[in-house]
Specification:
Strand content: over 45%
Helix content: 10-25%
Largest sheet: 7 strands, antiparallel
Number of domains: 1
Radius of gyration: 17 Å
Distance between the termini: 21 Å
Number of strands: 7
Order of helices and strands: HEEEEEEEHH
Number of helices: 3
Structural class: alpha+beta
Amino acid sequence: MRRTILSAGFAIAMMLLVAAPASATAPDREFDSFSFSDSADCGSFSDDYAGTVTIRSTTFFDAAGNPIMARGKVMQRETDTNSETGKSVLVKGSYTESVDLVTGIRRTTGQVFMGVGGKGANAIHDTGLVIFNDITGEVIKVAGPHTVLAGGNAPFCKALR
């Protein structure tokens, strides 16, 4: 997947690493928010994008206090802009990511990337369910339209042409 889902996944993983060990089995809840900006090559122009991500995460523990499951609610907003024409597209997302820390299976459900407004914005449509094996990198299951998962930066470039 592209940019913010990787950033969000990294942020969730980092929150797990710094989570204090539980003295009981109560879940550990954390909140994080950050901004990002970068660009992607679209051939004759660059997709300059910037936005914010907010993550509410919960880590669940077994009876021995070992983390076994992490769940993050991710909300993101970004604006992608064509570096040559100035055309821009708002991209939003709201999804839940659950990671089984024992098996390495990650489930992403919801609206990961959705282009809003403007001609061609519907090219960015990544919603539904994706199940990954974080250990092997394998995509196990895909349900719903996933133009970004399948096309990388191409849907963003198409929306900005």
